[in-house]
Predict the 3D structure of the following.
Amino acid sequence: MKRKILILCIDAGSHDYLAASDIPNIRKLGAAGFYRHAAAVVPSVTNVNNVSIATGTFPETHGITTNYHVDRDTGIGTFIEDLCRDGRFLLAPTLFEVAKAAGFAEKTALFVTKRKLLRMLCAGADIAVAAEAPPPAFIEVAGPVEPIYSVEINWWLLRAVRHTLRQHDADLVYCTTTDWVQHTYPPEAELSQRHFAGLDRIIGDIVDDNPAREIYITADHGMLPKTAALDPGRWLTQQGIPASSIPIIKDRYVAHHGNLGGAAYVFLENRTDTERAVQMLLQANGVEEVYPVEEAAREFRLHPERIGDIFVLADRDTVFGELDVAEESVSVRSHGSRHESYVPVIGYNSPWAAADFEYNVDVGRLFLASLPLTAP
Ligand SMILES: [Zn+2]
């Protein structure tokens, strides 16, 4: 029988959220297949991890290292918003493109909550749906559009997936939700538990409809409470080293996280300051790890031309941002650091074993490796 695959990336669907929720169907999948703890790509932010899973490669290959790119030479910043591999930032083909070129897939489908990820990953997708602004035909089957800051929008998305599987039996489906709930509520909160219970019910329906389908459930990152914020660029400048920094999480959805995240790229006015800046940043409050560009690229498999001059990771309680002061107190739930780079990988009907999945990326990587070698 032909393999059919569904990859579901629950945004911030980390083990602590799953463990606190009533999710009998997801548990059943894990019991019948496997449920393991794996690593996310660092920086542990949404686009970097989704693109890694959906291309089966690390950022050194696919090129997406941040939500917001600053050109090292001109200093001009832009949101990374490619349109179906238009050649701007995304350097690797999607799983859809490779699966089609290899003759694995006739029909592919991409489901996301936010439009920006749809644009980034739509190359090779026959069906592409963003819950934020769905095609009218999907409103008929999955219901009216839900607010982006709601639990309902993610349920809507999974209902749309279920409908598409029933209607088209697509060979390869990639779906990813959004994490407003986890940014707002801890695992034990009532709304968070309702969110996961709702997702679980629809996942149960999908499995009942498609008992033979290969299903992977993973996440892009975890989520932790933060109490301190630091602006690494401003802080360095105050120490006499002119610099600026961008929080990697920075995007247009400020209500999620206030553009505060646990990783930042630092741009120095003078690159000759690198060594001194690295040493100084190690003394700053809330900074846990500091890497000059080449070392960062090696250690985290990042693209060396797209990570500024220095890569900084925050400690467990700290986020980086563009602030009016160098340091301040905050109360926010966020991600981006090594501390949120933990994800589950649940595999059902998988030809591979739990031990094969060290990273969430391996869900895409192993699939690619199982295809006949044909580059798109
Ligand atoms: Zn995310």
About this structure: The longest helix spans residues 190-209. Residues 11-12, 46, 179, 220-221 surround zinc ion (CB under 6 Å). The longest strand covers residues 327-334.
